[in-house]
Write a structure and sequence with these properties.
The chain has 368 residues and is an alpha/beta fold. The protein has twelve helices and eleven strands. The radius of gyration is 21 Å and the shape is globular. Bound molecules: pyridoxal-5'-phosphate. Pyridoxal-5'-phosphate (PLP) is lined by residues 59-61, 85-86, 88-89, 131, 157, 159-160, 181, 183, 193, 195.
Length: 368
């Protein structure tokens, strides 16, 4: 058997007919940017997350950059985030000229610890970006409380967690902003790059929209700000509208398969993902910790099973952030998790016999 970490073609095959008709329809109409599909998708996303506004962008990284920029954050400011996330989270902070400050993570959920984040607050801190890593919500009540106490913006990086909920509310709608990516492998994936910012703040929603359209005011070719070109197109919006209707069902399938892994692997010498009581986890990735990660990965690879290394190097130790002056040992939990984390194949279309084969081989590895 050959089992990839993720297979996007099965989902496409299932939606092929509906997608083809819709795409031809978009192409025939001749409106390709800022048309009815984008507008429809934005309102459906607002409805889905329970937030008042949704402003589409070109990708998840831009969603973070635009939210930070809209808050007026820039040179001289500090923004606290997790070292255990995809590079883009901190890249966005650096891109607008602010300083990324990293706070260590919880060893069980892999999310930034609110207590550790609070310790990092200085007079220059302007915002905190909790990341709902792998689909598990961060401790939002604590972050929001800290934000209120210190007057900080709370910007959720919900790129991996669309559809996850925290105390009954959708992630992305809890902080001042929620930033979402529709990169093809995300739980809701476009067929290209796409993103959105969720917010309940009308002024900020307006500002983000203007910034993403070259800072152009309501009067065409009159510009109030130096902005960006960061927009969603009609083709991607049309695809996302069709797929959004399936997201909860797909997330549910991910949860079922995750539960099966957890049930089958619980006796082995592995640390398995947890789901905190007031949270729902949408398993963008099913990540286990193993002291024998490299050996286990190689053993599975030899048997046709692809695993993933998420993430092999925490952000404070990346070459690109050497100028920030961190050293090995500074954020020990994220460093330890980076050395032992391994993602197993998991996606809604993964078949039972495929998952059984993965489980069987992991068990055999530990028998030896
Ligand atoms: C994917 C991702 C991003 C970036 O999204 P893009 O659409 O690829 O720009 C940011 N943060 C996290 C946690 C991500 O997983």
């Amino acid at each position: 058997m050959n089992i990839p970490l993720i297979d996007l073609t099965k989902q496409y095959q299932a939606l092929k007919k509906e997608l083809s008709e819709k795409l031809l329809n978009v192409l025939e109409k001749g409106v390709y940017i800022a048309g009815p599909e984008v507008k429809g998708f934005e309102s459906e996303m607002a409805q889905f997350t329970g937030a008042k506004f949704a402003v589409s962008t070109a990708n998840g990284t831009d969603s973070l950059i635009l939210a930070l920029h809209a808050c007026g954050i820039g040179p001289g400011d500090e923004v606290i985030t997790s070292p255990f996330t995809f590079f883009a989270t901190a890249e966005a902070i650096a891109r607008i000229g602010a300083v990324p400050v990293f706070a260590d993570i919880d060893p069980y959920t892999f999310n930034m610890s609110p207590e550790k984040a609070e310790e990092k607050i200085t007079e220059r801190t302007r915002a905190i970006i909790p990341v709902h890593i792998f689909g598990h919500p961060a401790e939002m009540d604590a972050f929001i409380e800290i934000g209120e106490r210190y007057g900080l913006q709370i910007i959720e990086d919900a790129c991996q967690s669309l559809g996850a909920s925290y105390k009954g509310k959708q992630v992305g709608s809890l902080g001042h902003f929620g930033c979402v990516s529709f990169y093809p492998t995300k739980n809701l994936g476009a067929y290209g790059d796409a993103g959105i910012v969720i917010t309940n703040n009308k002024e900020m929603a307006k500002k983000i929209r203007i910034l993403g359209f070259h800072g152009m005011s309501s009067q065409k070719y009159f510009h109030d700000f130096v902005g960006y070109n960061s927009r969603l197109d009609e083709i991607q919006a049309a695809i996302l509208r069709i797929k959004l209707k399936k997201l909860q069902e797909w997330n549910h399938l991910r949860q079922e398969k995750a539960m099966k892994y957890t049930e089958e692997l619980k006796e082995l010498d592995l640390t398995l993902p947890v789901t905190l009581e007031h949270s729902s986890h949408v398993f963008h990735l099913y990540v286990i910790l193993s002291k024998e990660r490299e050996k286990l990965a190689a053993y599975l690879e030899e048997r046709g099973i692809t695993t993933g290394n998420y993430y092999p190097c925490p952000l404070h130790l990346q070459n690109a952030f050497q100028y920030l002056g961190y050293h090995p040992g500074d954020l020990p939990v994220s460093e330890q998790v980076s050395r032992t984390a391994l993602a197993l194949p998991l996606y809604p279309e993964l078949m039972d016999e495929e998952q059984d084969y993965v489980i069987k081989n992991i068990k055999e590895f530990f028998k030896k």
